[in-house]
Protein backbone atom coordinates (compact mmCIF):
# COMPACT_ATOMS: atom_id res chain seq x y z
CA UNK A 1 0.00 0.00 0.00
CA UNK A 2 1.26 3.44 -0.90
CA UNK A 3 2.06 5.89 1.83
CA UNK A 4 1.51 9.57 1.06
CA UNK A 5 2.66 12.70 2.75
CA UNK A 6 0.69 14.77 3.53
CA UNK A 7 -2.00 12.17 4.04
CA UNK A 8 -5.48 12.34 2.62
CA UNK A 9 -7.75 14.47 4.77
CA UNK A 10 -4.87 16.72 5.83
CA UNK A 11 -5.33 20.47 6.19
CA UNK A 12 -3.51 22.44 3.49
CA UNK A 13 -2.73 25.87 4.88
CA UNK A 14 -2.87 29.04 2.84
CA UNK A 15 -3.22 29.33 -0.92
CA UNK A 16 -1.22 27.83 -3.74
CA UNK A 17 0.25 24.46 -4.69
CA UNK A 18 1.45 21.79 -2.25
CA UNK A 19 3.27 18.68 -3.52
CA UNK A 20 2.05 15.33 -2.17
CA UNK A 21 4.63 12.51 -2.27
CA UNK A 22 3.42 8.90 -2.38
CA UNK A 23 5.80 5.92 -2.02
CA UNK A 24 5.29 2.21 -2.70
CA UNK A 25 7.73 -0.31 -1.10
CA UNK A 26 7.79 -4.06 -1.82
CA UNK A 27 8.79 -6.92 0.51
CA UNK A 28 12.39 -6.71 -0.68
CA UNK A 29 12.60 -3.08 0.32
CA UNK A 30 12.58 -1.76 -3.20
CA UNK A 31 10.50 1.40 -3.50
CA UNK A 32 9.23 3.82 -6.03
CA UNK A 33 7.36 7.09 -5.65
CA UNK A 34 5.21 9.59 -7.45
CA UNK A 35 4.24 13.20 -6.85
CA UNK A 36 1.00 15.08 -7.44
CA UNK A 37 -0.11 18.56 -6.48
CA UNK A 38 -2.95 19.94 -4.38
CA UNK A 39 -3.84 23.48 -5.43
CA UNK A 40 -5.72 25.58 -2.84
CA UNK A 41 -7.67 28.34 -4.61
CA UNK A 42 -8.92 31.60 -3.13
CA UNK A 43 -12.49 31.55 -1.82
CA UNK A 44 -14.79 33.85 -3.75
CA UNK A 45 -18.06 34.31 -1.82
CA UNK A 46 -21.33 34.25 -3.71
CA UNK A 47 -23.24 37.27 -2.54
CA UNK A 48 -27.02 37.04 -2.68
CA UNK A 49 -28.56 40.47 -3.31
CA UNK A 50 -30.91 41.77 -0.63
CA UNK A 51 -34.66 41.53 -0.99
CA UNK A 52 -36.58 44.78 -1.44
CA UNK A 53 -40.23 44.81 -0.39
CA UNK A 54 -42.09 48.00 -1.29
CA UNK A 55 -45.19 49.38 0.44
CA UNK A 56 -48.59 49.47 -1.20
CA UNK A 57 -49.45 52.13 -3.76
CA UNK A 58 -50.55 55.50 -2.40
CA UNK A 59 -53.45 57.65 -3.62
CA UNK A 60 -53.50 61.37 -2.82
CA UNK A 61 -55.86 64.18 -3.83
CA UNK A 62 -54.40 67.07 -5.82
CA UNK A 63 -54.44 70.66 -4.65
CA UNK A 64 -57.00 72.93 -6.28
CA UNK A 65 -56.25 73.38 -9.96
CA UNK A 66 -54.96 69.81 -10.33
CA UNK A 67 -51.37 71.00 -9.93
CA UNK A 68 -50.39 67.94 -7.90
CA UNK A 69 -49.83 67.12 -4.25
CA UNK A 70 -47.29 66.05 -1.65
CA UNK A 71 -47.30 62.32 -0.91
CA UNK A 72 -46.12 60.55 2.22
CA UNK A 73 -45.41 56.81 2.13
CA UNK A 74 -43.64 54.15 4.18
CA UNK A 75 -40.11 53.22 3.20
CA UNK A 76 -39.38 49.91 1.51
CA UNK A 77 -38.17 47.06 3.73
CA UNK A 78 -34.76 45.46 3.05
CA UNK A 79 -33.78 41.95 4.11
CA UNK A 80 -30.49 40.17 3.44
CA UNK A 81 -29.04 36.75 4.26
CA UNK A 82 -25.55 38.12 5.04
CA UNK A 83 -26.27 41.42 6.82
CA UNK A 84 -27.89 42.00 10.24
CA UNK A 85 -31.60 42.76 10.37
CA UNK A 86 -32.23 46.49 10.07
CA UNK A 87 -28.73 47.32 8.87
CA UNK A 88 -29.83 48.03 5.27
CA UNK A 89 -31.98 51.10 4.68
CA UNK A 90 -33.80 51.45 1.37
CA UNK A 91 -33.24 54.50 -0.81
CA UNK A 92 -36.31 55.66 -2.75
CA UNK A 93 -36.60 58.01 -5.71
CA UNK A 94 -38.66 60.18 -5.36
CA UNK A 95 -38.51 60.28 -1.56
CA UNK A 96 -41.46 60.38 0.80
CA UNK A 97 -42.98 63.86 1.24
CA UNK A 98 -41.95 64.77 -2.32
CA UNK A 99 -44.24 66.89 -4.48
CA UNK A 100 -45.84 64.87 -7.26
CA UNK A 101 -46.77 67.22 -10.07
CA UNK A 102 -50.04 67.05 -11.98
CA UNK A 103 -52.39 64.07 -12.10
CA UNK A 104 -51.81 60.38 -12.78
CA UNK A 105 -49.37 57.69 -11.68
CA UNK A 106 -45.71 58.21 -10.79
CA UNK A 107 -43.49 55.16 -10.22
CA UNK A 108 -41.32 55.28 -7.07
CA UNK A 109 -38.15 53.15 -7.30
CA UNK A 110 -36.73 51.85 -4.00
CA UNK A 111 -33.28 50.20 -3.88
CA UNK A 112 -31.67 48.05 -1.16
CA UNK A 113 -27.85 47.75 -1.22
CA UNK A 114 -25.98 45.36 1.10
CA UNK A 115 -22.48 45.66 2.59
CA UNK A 116 -20.95 43.82 -0.37
CA UNK A 117 -22.44 46.26 -2.87
CA UNK A 118 -25.11 43.93 -4.20
CA UNK A 119 -28.44 45.67 -4.71
CA UNK A 120 -32.02 44.94 -5.56
CA UNK A 121 -34.87 47.28 -6.32
CA UNK A 122 -38.62 47.21 -6.60
CA UNK A 123 -40.80 49.45 -8.72
CA UNK A 124 -44.50 48.79 -8.85
CA UNK A 125 -46.33 50.43 -11.73
CA UNK A 126 -49.98 50.75 -10.75
CA UNK A 127 -52.62 49.34 -13.08
CA UNK A 128 -54.47 51.63 -15.45
CA UNK A 129 -58.21 51.99 -14.95
CA UNK A 130 -60.13 53.00 -18.07
CA UNK A 131 -63.67 54.02 -17.21
CA UNK A 132 -66.56 54.15 -19.66
CA UNK A 133 -67.98 57.44 -20.85
CA UNK A 134 -70.32 59.43 -18.64
CA UNK A 135 -73.91 58.22 -18.65
CA UNK A 136 -76.93 60.50 -18.89
CA UNK A 137 -80.33 59.15 -17.85
CA UNK A 138 -83.77 60.75 -17.48
CA UNK A 139 -85.52 60.55 -14.12
CA UNK A 140 -88.89 58.89 -13.79
CA UNK A 141 -91.85 61.21 -13.29
CA UNK A 142 -91.62 63.11 -10.03
CA UNK A 143 -87.85 63.53 -10.30
CA UNK A 144 -87.26 60.76 -7.77
CA UNK A 145 -84.38 59.27 -9.76
CA UNK A 146 -83.77 56.38 -12.14
CA UNK A 147 -81.97 53.04 -12.52
CA UNK A 148 -78.76 53.44 -14.55
CA UNK A 149 -76.89 50.73 -16.44
CA UNK A 150 -73.26 51.13 -17.47
CA UNK A 151 -70.27 49.06 -18.57
CA UNK A 152 -67.57 48.14 -16.06
CA UNK A 153 -64.19 49.87 -16.10
CA UNK A 154 -61.33 48.05 -17.85
CA UNK A 155 -58.09 47.30 -15.95
CA UNK A 156 -54.68 46.80 -17.54
CA UNK A 157 -51.36 46.20 -15.77
CA UNK A 158 -47.77 45.68 -16.89
CA UNK A 159 -47.09 43.01 -14.23
CA UNK A 160 -50.35 41.05 -14.20
CA UNK A 161 -51.84 38.90 -16.98
CA UNK A 162 -54.50 40.48 -19.17
CA UNK A 163 -57.96 40.01 -17.72
CA UNK A 164 -56.71 39.04 -14.26
CA UNK A 165 -57.69 42.36 -12.65
CA UNK A 166 -61.40 43.12 -12.41
CA UNK A 167 -62.52 46.65 -11.57
CA UNK A 168 -64.58 47.18 -8.45
CA UNK A 169 -67.06 50.08 -8.50
CA UNK A 170 -68.67 51.64 -5.44
CA UNK A 171 -72.00 51.80 -7.29
CA UNK A 172 -72.84 48.80 -9.45
CA UNK A 173 -74.58 48.88 -12.79
CA UNK A 174 -78.33 48.61 -12.35
CA UNK A 175 -78.25 50.71 -9.19
CA UNK A 176 -80.95 53.27 -8.46
CA UNK A 177 -79.66 56.84 -8.53
CA UNK A 178 -81.91 58.98 -6.37
CA UNK A 179 -83.00 62.48 -7.27
CA UNK A 180 -81.40 64.72 -9.87
CA UNK A 181 -77.88 65.84 -10.62
CA UNK A 182 -74.47 64.22 -10.94
CA UNK A 183 -73.38 61.18 -8.96
CA UNK A 184 -69.71 60.18 -9.13
CA UNK A 185 -69.06 56.46 -9.50
CA UNK A 186 -65.54 55.42 -8.47
CA UNK A 187 -64.04 52.28 -10.02
CA UNK A 188 -60.84 50.79 -8.61
CA UNK A 189 -58.32 48.47 -10.25
CA UNK A 190 -56.05 46.71 -7.74
CA UNK A 191 -52.94 44.69 -8.62
CA UNK A 192 -50.72 42.63 -6.33
CA UNK A 193 -49.20 45.75 -4.74
CA UNK A 194 -51.54 48.70 -5.25
CA UNK A 195 -54.40 50.42 -7.01
CA UNK A 196 -55.31 53.17 -9.44
CA UNK A 197 -58.64 54.97 -9.12
CA UNK A 198 -60.84 56.60 -11.71
CA UNK A 199 -64.44 57.70 -11.89
CA UNK A 200 -67.21 58.69 -14.21
CA UNK A 201 -70.53 60.42 -13.65
CA UNK A 202 -74.17 59.51 -13.98
CA UNK A 203 -76.25 62.57 -14.80
CA UNK A 204 -79.92 62.52 -13.88
CA UNK A 205 -81.83 65.47 -15.40
CA UNK A 206 -85.40 66.22 -14.42
CA UNK A 207 -88.54 65.04 -16.16
CA UNK A 208 -90.96 67.76 -17.34
CA UNK A 209 -94.71 67.26 -17.56
CA UNK A 210 -96.48 68.24 -20.74
CA UNK A 211 -97.85 71.73 -20.35
CA UNK A 212 -101.63 72.20 -20.40
CA UNK A 213 -101.24 74.54 -23.34
CA UNK A 214 -99.85 71.61 -25.31
CA UNK A 215 -96.92 73.73 -26.39
CA UNK A 216 -94.22 71.35 -25.14
CA UNK A 217 -94.04 67.54 -24.89
CA UNK A 218 -92.26 65.73 -22.07
CA UNK A 219 -88.50 66.04 -22.50
CA UNK A 220 -85.36 65.87 -20.37
CA UNK A 221 -83.90 69.08 -19.04
CA UNK A 222 -80.47 70.08 -20.34
Automatic annotation (TrEMBL):
Q: Which organism is it from?
A: Stichopus japonicus
Q: What is this protein called?
A: HYR domain-containing protein
The source's superkingdom equals Eukaryota
